[in-house]
UniProtKB/TrEMBL annotation, chain B:
Membrane association type: Multi-pass membrane protein
Record PANTHER family: ANTIPORTER SUBUNIT MNHC2-RELATED (PTHR34583)
Protein name per UniProt: Dehydrogenase
GO cellular component, one term: plasma membrane
Subcellular location: Cell membrane
Family according to the record: Belongs to the CPA3 antiporters (TC 2.A.63) subunit C family.
Alphabetically ordered keywords of this record: Cell membrane, Membrane, Transmembrane, Transmembrane helix
Alphabetical list of InterPro entries matching this protein: CPA3_antiporter_subunitC, NUOK/Mnh_C1-like
TrEMBL record, chain C:
Membrane topology annotation: Multi-pass membrane protein
Keyword Kinase in record: no
Highest taxon in the source lineage: Bacteria
Organism: Streptomyces spiralis
Keyword NAD: no
Membrane spanning stretches: 71-88, 108-129, 135-156, 168-193, 213-234
Protein name: Na+/H+ antiporter MnhB subunit-related protein domain-containing protein
Lineage of producing organism: Bacteria, Bacillati, Actinomycetota, Actinomycetes, Kitasatosporales
Residues in Na+/H+ antiporter MnhB subunit-related protein domain copies: 106-227
PROSITE patterns hit by this protein: PROKAR_LIPOPROTEIN
A cellular-component GO term for this protein: plasma membrane
Compartments in which it is found: Cell membrane
Family classification: Belongs to the CPA3 antiporters (TC 2.A.63) subunit B family.
Swiss-Prot/TrEMBL keywords: Cell membrane, Membrane, Transmembrane, Transmembrane helix
InterPro entries: CPA3_antiporter_subunitB, MnhB
From TrEMBL, chain D:
Keyword hit for Transmembrane: yes
Signal peptide (UniProt feature, chain positions): 1-19
Keyword Transmembrane: yes
Organism of this sequence: Streptomyces spiralis
Protein name according to UniProt: MrpA C-terminal/MbhD domain-containing protein
Amino acid sequence: MNGWILAATVVLAVGLGTTLWGVATGPLGRRVVAQNLSTALVCPGLLLLSQGYDRTSYVDLALLLALLGPVGTLVFARLLADELAEEQPRAWGLTWAAAGLGAVVVAVLCAVTGPGRSMVKLLIVGALLVGGNLLASRAMSGGFPGVSRG
Amino acid sequence: MGSESAVTAVTHVLPYLVAAYVFLVGCYGLATSRNLIHAVGCLAVCQSATYVLLLAVGYRDGGTAPVFSDIRPGSRPVVDPVVQALTLTDVVVGATVTALLLALTVQIAKRHGTVDPDELRELRG
Amino acid sequence: MNPRARLWLVVLGGGGLAALLVAACLRLPAFGGPWHPYGDRAVRAALARHIANTIASVNFDQRAFDTMGEMTILFAAVLGCVVLLRQARDEHRDPPEPCEVAAPVRRYALVVLPIALVTGLYVIAHGQLSPGGGFQGGVVAATALHLMYLGADYAALERIRPVEAFEIGDALSASAYLVLGFAGVLAGGAFLANTLLPYGTFNTLSSGGTVPLLNAAIGMEVASAVVVLLARFLDQAVEIEEGSGS
Amino acid sequence: MADAVVVVALLAVAGLATAAVANRDPARQALVLAVLGTALAVLFTVLQAPDVGLSQLAVGSALTPLLIMLSVRKVRRRSAHGKDSKQ
């Protein structure tokens, strides 16, 4: 076991543990926030695993999660807009912390990889992850003001 | 020494036990469900147990994926690709079967105005 | 049967099943063991045919006939959904009014949609090289289209997604798989045998004989199937209303 | 100790499966299923099956939740409609 896998284990244990607790209990708003955080915390874990196993092809997994995770959150934000409008879930502290974690992991991995095609891919994953995460947070707190049915 | 062998014994069967547990939990949810959409979700949980079992059978300690686009063939031990191929198609086909069951649920809701299996039984009997 | 008796039955049956499963688990070969005879042979066969991703080789070459079965299940499930979720006689269509979406959400959807589509195509195209393939890429590409519904509104989605075209695409790609299989027979081999085309250079896009073609057919099939499926569900959830006439 | 990450992923999957069954409201269950899909993708990655992980991510993170939520919406709208007409 090398340091990368150890770091990934810690990130995944903390990330999956907190999201399990957040998504299974409490009001609906908190659950959607937890679902969004699961993307933001698992994706850096996958990137660290890819580095730990020394397999660049595993980065595809992180790319797909960074793309589709926020889409999943948008599904809930849109189809539960009525319920969420009452709660207006806000967790900007947590969201920025998770986005920061993603940015730090991507920066460290870029520094290790060095310039090249894999670095471009890492930067795309990072941009999609941070952007999607912040946007999904925005969407669930009043992103669909006029959705009554449609 | 004794505790160490106990730990390895646990890690040697833990994945199988988790697969069995996930399957049983899904079955329990299916049997006690009061909402057909919830029951379909429980069936999805049962399906995921089969993925865990198949992939656990194919794992090899210290192995890596049998995908040679970024490593030289033969340079590292690889895990079993056959079970992975089985699981891979299973995941996507499982999702469409879930969709088919949800379509049936929507149709039941239209016909009978409820998705509670107990109320449906009363309607019929 | 009252719920209490049913619960007891479940606990009894589940307990018995649990005991049997645990007994079976304890007798299975240990997790992570070194003995994988089928796996080792599959890897050797894949390398002999210049396919870098052994899983794609198993799916589209060594067990291509099984994949045809999976494809048939997929096709039948979609057909079932289309039949079940058609517009009934006592229902009418009521197009939803365009909805208001916050500007950043709309912009995000419009930026990410092409990226997700390209990623889906990339995953399909590199199926026989890196992790990925028709099954995964097809789902990604089809999901990407529905960002139009999530980020804009239903009318916008309907403009970029003609369902009839995707229904035809579904049927065409399913038959393309069969045609490729029969081409093997006509060339003097067996059904779906990978003897038709040269194997090419290892680890390039065109390597692996018929594997990239079958992979592309499955990718198109899955993408069209998912689009058709979601279109039926969206119709029901958003547009079709009860009661005849409006 | 090399299997620590496997054990973490297995425990997360078991916990999320329990939560998915225990949440009886379909919308809340769909949220748990979305996270369960992500956890399964992590498990498949640590079991060295990136292809299956990709498949699970593609299906579990957006497609299954969308299907379930659309069904929930249809069923809820129907029952709301039925109550209106009864009144």
